Amino acid sequence: MKETLSIKSIFQIIKRHLLLLISTTVIGALTAGVALMFLITPMYEAKTQILVTQSVQDAGVNNLQTSEVQANIQLVNTYTALLTSPRILDDVAKNLGGNYTAGKLMGKITVGSQHNSQVINVSVQDEDQAQAALIANAVAESFAKITPDVMNVNNIDILAKADVAANPRPVSPSPVILIGGGAIGGMMIGFVIMIIRVVFNTKFKDETEVIDELGIPLLGNIAKIPETHGEGLK
After folding, report:
1. What is the pTM of this model?
2. Domains recognised in the chain with CATH numbers
């Protein structure tokens, strides 16, 4: 019975503070929206793909064996590490006119490979999608130029170059996640304020709270005398 009353009282407390919770939720969402529009810089992404193929002298004519494919797939891990090495990034920075350092470029580049695939994906994020595409293509070109000398191979092809979309959309931040997170954060703040009010407020607002808290019947109440009546008697 006490558990039922406790759950009931919790819902009553939430009901009394519903306006507060709604207000803090809306304020949190609006704050996140303002931050999205004026404080957070949107980031755009450009991608290029590099294909690791079997060299002609190793493969023979139309005779690409499964073991050779597996060897190339294993080499993808080495190539992935090489893509973000100082040797490649220093060359990219030089080709881009010295506007970037190797460390700054590394923070913009993400390299990955598809499972059991000879394709390496290079993704670049930047405030300007055209600049992101320029960096991605520069990385692919430097990699295709330097890798044959470093690895003594001739099996690197640029499968797809990065291009600029007509109407690019930012990849981060996500408006839905940001505004939703702001709304949830605002609601949590509202709950904290509600709990503080309940814990530190020892006053009874009406007779129902007295009955619920003390568990005794209400015998009567004293009506509040309007102040205008008192003024008329003077």
Report:
1. 0.68
2. 2-39+173-216 (no CATH), 44-160 (3.30.70.1130)
